[in-house]
TrEMBL record:
Residues 69-193 form the AB hydrolase-1 domain. Keywords: Hydrolase. It comes from Pseudomonas shirazensis. Gene3D superfamilies: alpha/beta hydrolase. GO terms for molecular function: hydrolase activity. The lineage of its organism: Bacteria, Pseudomonadati, Pseudomonadota, Gammaproteobacteria, Pseudomonadales. It comes from the Bacteria. It holds the Pfam family Abhydrolase_6. This is Alpha/beta fold hydrolase.
Length: 277
């Protein structure tokens, strides 16, 4: 029996007898990330980074000089997962600040969720020069879109392999772990209490996205369905949808077409500033 099968079996049985208890255990698991070490290919970029500490102890890595691009990784991710993008942006004359999200890396906290990531983006932006762009991957991408609703100011934004709504993510997690109906409902209720928002509100269909953007997604992403990118694109008028044939959930970050698309977006965002100068 696999570990997942065992968890599903326990959740299926106890979830009917004690739904709130099982929901609480699964909520803690859902919000408690592992700190995973960098891969070998990330180490050269990590060695060249300047580590900075922002307000409330938020940790970040910085490279380059020029207009600032702010980045947010995904769940259990790291700043250096953006290595290909960071190297291209620095070569193009940008400063890149890549955050370690709450409860990740050296940033404080024990738990994380999309709203905490969004607040971290806002806190970082308050200390940094005006942002040329904000880029997020997976949950980081969802947090970028949420932070924009909360007042994050930037000339452009990029969402990579991000979900369009949190409710679908929660339902998928609960079903994958075998929680019966009452435990699933309690799980979503408890997540809402922790996040401080109704999860139905964390949906791009209700967002105002009024800046140039790029939405990138791999068709073979096994974690976040490619259809989520279509939903984000539909809700985001001034956006370009870049669907890649392959790249999964992580390898997409190094795709040359993604790098090219980001550089094109930043060049377009910089044009009005040059014209008004």
């Amino acid at each position: 029996m696999t570990t997942l099968s065992w968890i599903r079996g326990v959740n299926g049985t106890l979830g009917r007898l004690a739904p709130e208890h099982i929901a609480g255990r699964m909520r803690r698991a859902f919000m408690t990330p592992r700190n995973l070490p960098p891969r070998q290919w990330e180490l050269p970029l990590l060695a060249t980074a300047e580590r900075i500490t922002l307000r409330f102890g938020l940790s970040a890595l910085r490279w380059g000089q020029g207009p600032t691009v702010l980045m947010m990784h995904g769940w259990e991710g790291r700043p250096t997962q953006f290595a290909a993008l960071i190297e291209a942006l620095v070569a193009a004359g940008h400063t890149v600040v890549s955050l370690e999200g709450p409860a990740h890396g050296r940033s404080p906290g024990r738990q994380a969720h999309v709203a905490l990531f969004a607040r971290a983006l806002l806190e970082a932006a308050a200390e940094l020069p005006p942002l040329r762009a904000v880029i997020g991957h997976s949950m980081g991408g969802a947090s970028v879109l949420l932070a924009l609703q909360w007042g994050l100011r930037t000339e452009a934004a990029v969402s990579i392999a991000a979900p369009a709504q949190l409710l679908g993510v929660l339902r998928g997690f609960a079903q994958r772990l075998g929680m019966p109906a009452r435990a699933r409902a309690a799980f979503i209720r408890q997540v809402e209490q922790d996040v401080g928002l109704q999860v139905a509100r964390l949906d791009v269909n209700g967002y105002q996205l009024e800046l140039p953007g790029l939405i990138a997604h791999a068709s073979d992403d096994p974690l976040v369905a490619a259809s989520e990118a279509q939903l984000i694109h539909k809700a985001w008028f001034d956006s370009r949808l870049l669907m890649l044939e392959d790249g999964g959930h992580q390898r997409v970050l190094a795709d040359p077409l993604l790098v090219e698309g980001v550089l094109e977006l930043l060049a377009r965002a910089a044009t009005p500033a040059r014209q008004s100068a």
